[in-house]
Amino acid sequence: MECVRKVTEDIFWVGGNDRRLALFENVYPIPQGVSYNSYLIMDEKTVLTDGVDHAVTKQFFENVSALLKDRPLDYLIINHMEPDHAGSIAEIVKRYPEVTLVCNEKTKKMLSQFFAEDFQIVTVGPKDTLCSGAHTFSFVMAPMVHWPEVMVTYDASAKVLFSADAFGTFGALEGHLFADAMDFQTQWLPEARRYYANIVGKYGPSVQALLKAASQLEIEAICPLHGPVIRKDFSLYLKAYQSWSTYTPEEEGVLIAYASIYGNTENAAEVLAFELAQRGVRNIRVCDTASTHPSYLVAEAFRCSHLVFAAASYNSGLFDSMEILLNDLVHHNLQNRKVALIENGSWAPSAGKKMTELVGQMKQMEMIAPLLTVRSSLKPEQKEEISAIADAIAQCIGKE
């Protein structure tokens, strides 16, 4: 049975939710599932914006057919060619063979890479418009947010921005299509941050360009490809995106990420957290890199102003889970953070050197304390060194 939700009087959500998928893009855990959003505009000409993943095509086509009934589908606007949205294109065309695909030149090339079929295509650019009757659509190119072919579509009549992956989030829609300020802060923000940091985080300058272009538009609703529709409290979303895309810490806080084999490095991390709390620092997150998926740690690194990496030496290098995390942070272009390092080594400490090298590959990362070397276990006489790290962080945050 169909599950259609109204965005405006003639714009409808026709997507689906996937709560069975364990890993988004076969990488990122999604314990709350994910939504695949598609929108159908019922005008003189019918317009569908993007498709869905294969996993939810049954629900998707029930939704579309319930609205169209005997009407044809005139246009399919393709904002993004990633298969979690474009994977259903061939089936859409099979069911609605009269449909015209509306896309840019880069998307047209990708269509021939993903599909063997010949499609009826109209290519558009930034100066083009598409009129379906009461609605007029224009197109803003958004390359590398987060693929090179990405564009967003603006409906000037309804003042709706179909934003592709921008403003998306992990998490299935729990019956509610719209998110207000309370929903965003309590339900969506952590997964919106994790989605942004891991999916789009590398491309901050590209996101900034899109934000600048969108600021020139009068917007009453943002319809992303994942997560809820935004139709008020835009400032909360824009503030978060501004921080993330400029690599500005979202909050004054401390992430202590540790990689411990037998618990001694973990103890050093716990002692530091205790010392920070003693100095009045409240926003502290302590995470085990071996048991916490890197996507959560990348998101926390985007959130926090101060990062502490504590790791054991391993195979004359760095313990695996910490090396994975730091490489992820390098690849996601993290920058502009204050950092402290703790290494552990029983006979030939090597973790500090490797962590220093990896942090050094990130821009504007400031070391705020000397490297602390632990020999097997933290000793009472090293209390001053731990205290020095805690003092440096607390002074930066303004607690002492």
Write structural notes for this entry.
By secondary structure, the protein is an alpha/beta fold. It has twelve helices and 23 strands. A hairpin with a 4-residue loop joins strand 14 and strand 15 (160-162). It is elongated, with a radius of gyration of 24 Å.
Nearest-integer average pLDDT: 96
Low-confidence stretches: none
Strand order of the largest sheet: 1-2-7-8-9-10-11
- Spatial shape: elongated
Q: How many helices in DSSP terms?
A: 12
Determine the strand fraction and express it as a percent band.
Answer: 15-25%
Q: Mind sketching the topology for me?
A:
Elements: E1 5-6, E2 11-13, E3 16-18, E4 23-24, E5 28-29, E6 34-36, E7 39-42, E8 46-49, H1 57-68, E9 75-77, H2 83-86, H3 89-95, E10 100-103, H4 105-114, E11 121-123, E12 129-131, E13 136-141, E14 151-155, E15 160-162, H5 181-200, H6 204-214, E16 221-223, H7 234-245, E17 251-259, H8 264-278, E18 284-288, H9 294-303, E19 304-314, E20 317-318, H10 320-331, E21 337-344, H11 351-360, E22 365-367, E23 372-374, H12 383-397
Parallel strand pairs: 8-9, 9-10, 10-11, 15-16, 17-18, 17-19, 19-21, 21-22, 21-23
Antiparallel strand pairs: 1-2, 2-7, 3-6, 4-5, 7-8, 12-13, 13-14, 14-15, 19-20
